[in-house]
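hey m, so remember when u said the tokens were messed up on ur end? i reran from scratch. heres the input so u can diff it against urs
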Amino acid sequence: MPNTRISLVIPAYNEEKYVGSCLDHAIRSSASAGGFYEIVVVDNASKDKTSETAASRKGVRVVKEMQKGLTKARQRGLIETKADILAYIDADTRMPQGWLETVQREFERNPGLACLSGPYIYYDSPRWQQFLVKYFYWYLLAMPSYFFTGYMVVGGNFAIRREVLEKMGGFDTTIAFYGEDTNIARRASAYGKVKFKPDFIMYSSARRLASEGFFKIGWLYVTNFLSEAIRKKPTTDQYEDIR
């Protein structure tokens, strides 16, 4: 896609421990595709050395969003970047080889594609837990939900057209955490196809899963997905930062 620019946006709150590895993987894995047009880390009112760690990586720009909140950080990324397509990942992820090529290929082949997303694979959890997540979360819960609604987004693994974000009024900054990804998917689907691709994976830390438990996490994501899809608002207002 020689005429299409892709910006990578990484919201980060107190991510000194993870953001360096995240950036190293993103820079290395995207090199074969020519790299991202720009990589922007949005320091969301961090109190550690997130900014310093991110800025130490060549070609990375750090911007500040002092109003705490994931959706506020996402919105800052929209404001600060210039590319035609914005790719959003979390600061505790490790981008696999071919990820950027997949984004390029999918948007090139599908002019009506508004947003592309895919599942997580947890790189630091036991194999039995990875098996449960893959078959219980994704195959038994996520995929049927996707086929029912026609849209699904995983917040730490998606790419979206700038024009779609602008048409939908940007991110809903009133949402704290849970349900924000479904909100993105639902609203973006009004302007094109929101594709959930099972093999478009992102490796992520299992720290939230380890902290809150398999069934609690499943319940929170399912109930907030259904609430956002049906009632157009999530059910859970509170969340805990897991660091």
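this time it looks ok to me. The mean pLDDT is 95. if urs says something different then somethings off w ur setup not the seq
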